[in-house]
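Mods, move this if it's the wrong board.
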Amino acid sequence: MEPVTKNLTWQQLDITTMTNLYLYGQMTTPASKVDDALIRPEDVFQKDGSVKDPQVIVNITNVPSFPTSTLGMHTICE
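Not the wrong board. Structure tokens:
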């Protein structure tokens, strides 16, 4: 199965979206959380627990860069 690629801004990648991607492999909460189709088959995971083939790939876009030229960059807290 070919993974689905989603392009999201960092604002769109909120806690609900992250939870849905982790638990259900989709961005929205399913209508029925007890649907048998939500239970992932064992062959999705390798023996070490890693995922064989990702179901969803998320590209995060419009991420603000870390300040490189402001005084805050050089602040030292003592």
